[in-house]
Design a protein that fits this description.
Rossmann fold; alpha/beta; N-(1-d-carboxylethyl)-l-norvaline Dehydrogenase, domain 2; 19 helices
Length: about 500
């Protein structure tokens, strides 16, 4: 990008559809300084939306985020268009109507008869194909997707989606305009789910799979992903907030769009929840109860256990290496041994970072797995898993060790990859595959996942910390245990693993 192609502030922006999202987008354009035209097919709705917008701007004044003069000027720029002819002077029209392809196509066909040929046309769809929406247009090259996130005035991310026929100049113009509005745009190709709704599927899917396998209950899975994985919300509480019906519909839409690819398979447990009418906060009950007086389930946490007085660290611990100085700082003596990748406990047990294997596969060995953490120094909870043959004494040594580091400890069922590790590995896998298929750049994917769904790190940031060999091995082990194709590492992950190894060999030979 060279010269800024943003639409000038004195040019009108039109919003068609004045529900929650339409009003939010209109507010963003209005505050950015544009004249804004509102239109809605429902009688009186555009006028109601204009009044609501004026009220919102008034509340911004009360909070000191806007001066009374700025509010008055913005309200003066806001106009209601009773029919589409009132949008004739718009330089950009953004549609936020019902998610139905025939409705959207008919709307844009009518808009083309009204606006000038240089007017940029955009859809805010989150689930439909941008290419399909533009399919009947006379000038499909000027059509883009502008996927805002709700609430649009507050959330910074906007996915700028290029359909099959979108001109590069139109995408750049949309990108620059959104950036001029103070948003953070990311570019992506027209693919099911775009960036966020495509890449985020494992965050929900792996949690549901773990629940179905009875590895842990929803409250425990949420707590581990929050307090160890660093995610803002756990998947069960987040889908209760979104609406189980909405989340399940997006999952099913992406799965069907990818021709039932096993990596996107919906959850039967979530389907049953939707069928029962437990849709989350909006119905008073989902995975959790929300009626008055309802209390959240207590997350099982291990009772205090004595810390071991010494441990032996075998080899490097990779991403978990920060545990070593933490153990030393806790007053526990640490010996180092060259070979291996685990922590040896005094009683002979081995404490090992989750690697996609199941503990029961280590027949007769005293193994305790611990889960991945985004940052072991700030994590407040660690999940452990043991085999039936692991002695209570070995488990207590592992519990006591992490408690000495200031962590709460939860023991979950013995499932390959545990909770955080398998979730992160799948996020990386889908992100790498998306880059290699030309959906978006690695930087834009990381930005989208941090800003769109508040992840503690983007998938490529996780991959840089863990290394592709770790990700590939973890996925490969999961694929062996679940040979459905769901966990098979994509070609891009395997290729990057080999490139990583080659780079390391080259560095060692110098």
């Amino acid at each position: 990008m060279t010269d800024n192609m943003a639409i000038a502030r004195d040019r009108a922006v039109a919003v068609v559809g004045t529900g929650t999202m339409g009003q939010g987008i209109a507010q963003v354009a209005l505050v950015a300084g544009h004249p804004v035209r509102l239109h809605d097919a429902g009688p009186g709705r555009a006028r109601q939306a204009a009044d609501a917008l004026a009220g919102r701007l008034g509340r911004l004044v009360e909070k000191g985020r806007m001066t009374p003069e700025e509010r008055d000027a913005a309200v003066a720029r806001l106009q209601v268009a009773d029919d589409l002819s009132g949008l004739a002077d718009a330089a950009l029209v953004i549609e936020a109507v019902v998610e139905a392809l025939p409705v959207k196509r008919e709307l844009f066909a009518e808009l083309e008869k009204t606006v000038a040929d240089d007017c940029l046309l955009a859809t805010n769809t989150s689930s439909l194909s941008v290419t399909a929406v533009a399919g009947g247009l006379r000038l499909p090259g000027r059509f883009v997707g502008l996927h805002f996130f709700n609430p649009a005035p507050l959330l910074p991310l906007v996915e700028v989606v290029s359909g099959f026929a979108t001109d590069e100049t139109a995408a750049t113009r949309a990108y620059d305009t959104v950036a001029a509005w103070g948003k953070t745009p990311v570019r992506c190709a027209d693919t099911p789910g775009f960036i966020v709704n495509r890449i985020a599927r494992p965050f929900y899917a792996e949690a549901l799979r773990l629940y179905e396998e009875r590895a842990a209950d929803p409250a425990t899975i949420d707590a581990v992903l929050r307090e160890s994985g660093g995610f803002r919300m756990g998947p069960f509480e987040l889908t209760d907030l979104i609406g189980q019906d909405v989340n399940e519909a997006v999952t099913r839409s992406v799965w069907e769009s990818f021709h039932h690819d096993p990596k996107f398979t919906p959850s039967l447990a979530q389907r049953r929840l939707v069928e029962s009418g437990r849709l989350g906060r909006k119905t008073g009950r989902g995975w959790y109860a929300y009626d008055e007086g309802a209390q959240r389930p207590v997350v099982p946490t291990e009772a205090p256990a004595p810390a071991p007085d010494k441990v032996t660290v075998h080899g490097g611990l990779g991403h978990a290496e920060p545990l070593v100085p933490m153990i030393e700082a806790a007053g526990i003596k640490v010996r180092r041994h060259r070979r291996g990748h685990h922590i040896a406990l005094p009683g002979g047990g081995h404490l090992t970072l989750a690697d996609g294997e199941a503990v029961f596969e280590y027949d007769g060995e005293e193994i305790v797995y611990f889960d991945l953490a985004h940052d072991y120094t700030t994590a407040t909870r660690i999940a452990l898993a043991t085999a039936p043959t692991t002695s209570p004494e070995t488990l207590q040594e592992a519990v006591g060790l992490f408690q000495a580091l200031g962590k709460e400890v939860t023991v979950i069922g013995d499932v390959p990859g545990m909770i955080v590790a398998r979730t992160v590995a799948m996020l990386v896998d889908l992100a790498v595959d998306a880059v290699d298929r030309g959906v978006a750049s690695a930087d834009d994917i990381d930005t989208a996942m941090r800003l769109g769904v508040n992840y503690p790190a983007g998938p490529f940031e996780w991959a840089a910390r863990l290394g592709y060999e770790t990700v590939s091995d973890l996925l490969g082990s999961l694929h062996t245990r679940y040979p459905t194709g769901r966990y098979a590492p994509c070609l891009g992950v395997v290729r990057r693993e080999y490139e990583e190894r080659a780079a390391m060999k080259d560095q060692e030979s110098r």
